[in-house]
Amino acid sequence: MLEDTGSGEDTQGSSDTGAADPDTSVTPDTSALDTSPSDTATNSACPGGDFCDCDKNDDCDNGICLDTPDGKKCGKKCIDACPDDYTCKQFGDNDSVFVCTANHLTLCSPCESNSDCQVYDKTATCIDYGDAGSFCGSACSKDADCPGDYACVTAAGKGAGKASKQCKLKPKVTGGSGTTCTEDATCGASESCIDGTCQTSSPGLCECSTWAKSVATKTTCSNGSGAGVCTGSRSCGEKGLTACDAPTAVTETCNDVDDDCDGVTDELPAETKCSQKAWSTQGSGSACKTDDDCATKGESCNTDTNKCQVFIGECAGTPVCLPGGKMECKGVKTPKVELCNSEDDDCDGAIDEDFTWKDPSTDKELSVGDACGAGACAGGQVKCETFSAAVCDTAKKAGKETCSGADEDCDGNTDEDTCADGDECTKDLCDSDKKSCSNPPGATCDDKNACTVDTCDKGSGKCVFKPYSGTCDDGNACTVGDTCGVATGGTSVCKPGSKQKDCDDNNLCTDDSCNKDSGCVNLANSATQTCYGGAKNTVGVGPCKAGIQYCKSGKLESACVGVVLPNKAEKCDGIDDTCNGVTDEGCKVSGVSVAFAAAAGTTTGSKGKELRVALGQQSPTGTAVGPKKTVLFGFWAWLTGATK
Fold first, then answer.
1. Do 88 and 76 form a contact (C-beta atoms < 8 A)?
2. Within a domain: residue 630?
3. Best CA proximity match to 371, nearest among 357, 382, 363
4. Would you state the pLDDT for residue 624?
5. 102, 132, 164: which is the final residue of a domain?
6. Could you tell me if 156 and 114 are in contact, meaning their C-beta atoms sit under 8 angstroms apart?
7. Total count of domains within the chain
8. What's the rounded Cα separation, in Å, for the pair 127 and 228?
9. Distance (Å, whole) CA 292 – CA 408
10. What's the gap between Cα 3 and its chain centre?
11. Which of 102, 178, 303, 494 could pair with 474 in a Cys bridge, judged by C-beta atoms 3.0 to 4.6 Å apart?
């Protein structure tokens, strides 16, 4: 607080936002202030100078001793310029004096109401920080108005008025995804939007300023647990903020103490129980302190006698707290060994649980009260027959099973074992409708081995497999002559024959092979063969030649492509048309006139392809070879022609 100036009036500075807000109707009297640049800086001449330590106004040269976060300091008169976190404000009721006043004097100080925070800042509020307590805020409009570790948030104070913008200590960041955000809703379930990024955090913890320590500000705090929430207090002392002195809430017990801090003493929770235990006098009687000391199965430690005995049970009562913090277990009974009597003797929540009846139809143990009975015994219920035994109350209806379509022996099966013929290799069948028996052969004994003889033994119903010698099939379709033999170890096996199956189908147009699974495979190919329909001795004589036949879709086509066969007769064309090695045989050549420039003559004879032309002595001589005929000229032609 501002120190009293001696006028007897409250000299506290006025403020509503923490920023400079002097009364605009008052103009500071600057005649008494030095407005040189040095006047805006801190006067370090201590004691008595600006911001020097002080206890009262008289300790300061200007007679102004102010409260600051760092304790009481001599005030600095101002016009408008002040150090960071200070604002130039009117000093008390003196409209001509303005002093640099701390913006955040009470920020983060423990508080119990808004008024605890409003020393200079009349809009500062007391903000709830959860179990840690309540601490002062400071009016702001944006984060920049607050110290670095604080954020400008909307917070409700303790007292009248609506929520307002206040500087509040930021949570302590412990991790997080770091994703950009604008509000908590855009972050993960365990994250908060802090400084524009999604982060995980723990609540920030305020520290005590020198001013807070000097005035010993305090707050109410709490200590919560599953049992309840206990309240206490903490304050600013010489060593800083004290720990919360609230006790830890625990489950209420009978002790004349409000253990769960709900304002009521010794009200027991609904889950509070009390009971009485009992042990049988039987057992080993070994010394013990806990159940772990008992080695004999089924025994536990009787803590009343410290002996190992058979545990009978534990009966519950109703716990009631008596004056003085003592508890009484009302309505509790002593446990007894369970009897078959429709009562829970050992207080384990079950009645007659130690007594069962075995249902022959299911081989299940049924408890007392369970439905029971099958077939003729259906509709029964397991009941206590004596104190020590239970039975299905319809079991007496069971009789001998016959081939009748009914479960007469109450075992859950119908007509079983009613048609047995003594032969284990037959099926014993009962026709329930006709109430008659039949005994057809049973399952066939077949070991899937072609080299064994399979039979069934009537006495045991077991299959007998004897070795067999003879032909068999080894499963390979490409072997021939498979026979049964004995493999290593004495096992009868089918051995493959020494011959391979002949898959040749005598078809030029297929490729023949054998597949061990499917047998012969004859696949179409594209083979060819020569063909000729004439006499063998005419092939290659004259123009005659063989042709080609092609395979198509596994068959040889009938067409003989490119074949040239002999003609029946010569065409007298200079070609051996009959392909017999003689050309134009039987063809007659008539006489022709031959004229030359120097002589003339006639053909006198012919032989084969030759024509003989007889000419005068001065006529041309020699031989003229043409594509179809050879012509002989001259005397020699005449001479030879005349002699033929």
1. no
2. yes
3. 382
4. 58
5. 102
6. no
7. 2
8. 23
9. 52
10. 71
11. 494
Distance between CA atoms of residues 258 and 391, nearest Å = 55
Asked whether 338 and 345 are in contact (CB, 8 A), the reply is yes
Number of CB atoms found within 10 A of residue 640's CB: 16
Domain that holds residue 62: 30-102
**Res 634: pLDDT:** 58
C-alpha 423: how far from chain center? 57
CA distance 137 to 298: 66
Mapped onto helix, strand or coil, the DSSP state of residue 143 is helix
Specify the residue for token string 């409708």: 433
CA proximity to 416, closest of 424, 408, 439: 408
Higher pLDDT, 609 or 280: 280
> At residue 604, does pLDDT exceed 80?
no
Confidence of residue 71 (pLDDT cuts 50, 70, 90): very high
Check residue 623 and give its pLDDT: 60
Highest mean pLDDT among 225-234, 375-384, 579-588: 375-384
Identify each DSSP E strand in 44-181 by its residue range.
Answer: 65-68, 71-74, 86-91, 94-102, 126-128, 134-136, 150-155, 164-169, 172-175
Q: Mind listing the pLDDT tens digit for each residue in 94-116? A: 778 899 999 999 999 999 999 99
pLDDT of residue 444: 83
How many Cβ atoms sit within 10 Å of the Cβ of residue 176? Answer: 19
The reported pLDDT for the residue numbered 367 is: 92
Distance CA 428, CA 438 (A): 6
Both structure tokens of 557: 């086509």
pLDDT at 33 over 50: no
pLDDT tens for 413-440 read 998 888 888 888 998 899 988 899 999 9
Six-digit token string for 371 = 């439905």
Q: What is the pLDDT of residue 55?
A: 92
Q: How far is Cα 589 from Cα 573, in angstroms, rounded to an integer? A: 12
Residue 72 within a domain: yes
- Which tokens is 215 given? 């005035």
pLDDT at 532 (0 to 100): 92
Tokens representing 301 are: 């430690």
Q: Does residue 36 lie within any of the structural domains? A: yes
Among residues 82, 102, 122, the one where a domain terminates is 102
- Mean pLDDT of the residues in the chain: 83
pLDDT for 192: 83
- Residues 6 or more apart from 367 whose CB is under 8 A from it? 352, 353, 355, 356, 382
What is the three-class DSSP state of 169? strand
Q: Taking 50 as the threshold, does the pLDDT of residue 14 lie above it?
A: no
- Three-state secondary structure call for residue 364: strand
The partner residues of 77 in beta bridges, in order of sequence, read 99
The answer to whether 261 and 232 have CB atoms below 8 angstroms apart is no
In whole angstroms, give the CA distance from residue 405 to residue 431. 8
The identity of residue 399, as a single letter, is: G
Residue 190: per-residue pLDDT: 82
User: Look-up: residue for tokens 């129980």?
Assistant: 273
- Burial class of residue 226 in the structure, from the number of CB atoms within 10 Å of its CB (0-12 exposed, 13-18 middle, 19+ buried): exposed
Residue type, position 644, single letter: K
DSSP state of 40: G
